[in-house]
Amino acid sequence: MAAKKKSSDFFWVSFADLMTSLFFIMLVLFVLTVVYLRVEQNKIIAEVEELEKIVQLKEQFKALQGDEDFYYLEECKKYVASSLMGIEIFEPNKTEILPEYREVTLEVGEKIEYFLNTLQENNPDFSYLVIIEGNMGNSYDMKFSPDTKFGYTRSYDRALAVYNLWTENEIDFRKSNVEVLIAGSGFNGLCREEDEEKNKRFSIQIIPKVSSRL
Asked: Which residues cross the membrane (predicted)?
């Protein structure tokens, strides 16, 4: 009888330990679930807030799109200076900007700088990448290959000439949260005009860097 009672006592002690262990396991799982849900909720809230900022930012870009001095290439999400479209602003086969086009090129740079300053004031948590891209117009008989080294190097040098003209006249895009990239697409690239004369231009892309998640 004593042996049976001892066995029964051992059973209830073991059962109590098991239930206690299960309780703590369930408690830990509950806490982890609550923490996980809270983290996911915060992520969703943060993403919604960022999406709202993107929408606001898109509205702010309309100011530049509506400026008559710029033509917006919708398919490429880039701007070209309206007053310089179809005009060879450089010395033939060279990278120097012709004297008669320096002033209008400076005006374009000043407008872009003003627009970037406005973006930074309205969106201090964002950063931006500004791409100054040189483009080349092919000859009437299309003798230049789209991937010729000449086209890439010459268009890059021309984009650099535009950037240097701006910096020499204290037009500075490289401020707190703006990075500048000089590029040349030569006789290649998207959104080229059928009339090759109109491809003798430089274009500007302003890319907001909102978040690593979006």
From this structure: 12-37
CA distance 79 to 76: 9
Mean pLDDT by 10 residues, the chain (214 residues): 51 60 69 70 64 62 68 76 76 83 91 87 83 85 84 91 94 85 87 78 80 46
- Residue 64 pLDDT: 66
Where are the strands (E) in 74-147, listed by range?
A: 78-81, 127-135
Of 107, 139, 131, residue with least CA distance to 182: 131
Q: Can you tell me whether residue 111 is helix, strand or coil?
A: helix
Among residues 211, 201, 214, the alpha carbon closest in space to that of 79 is found at 201
Task: State the fold for domain 70-209.
Answer: 60s Ribosomal Protein L30; Chain: A; (3.30.1330)
**CA-to-CA distance for 113 and 173, rounded, in angstroms?**
6
CB neighbourhood size of 46 (10 A):
13
Give domain limits for the chain.
Answer: 1-65, 70-209
Q: How far apart are CA 91 and CA 86, in angstroms?
A: 14
- Surface-to-core class of residue 85, CB atoms within 10 Å of its CB (0-12 exposed, 13-18 middle, 19+ buried): middle
Burial class, 58, CB count within 10 angstroms (exposed 0-12 / middle 13-18 / buried 19+):
exposed
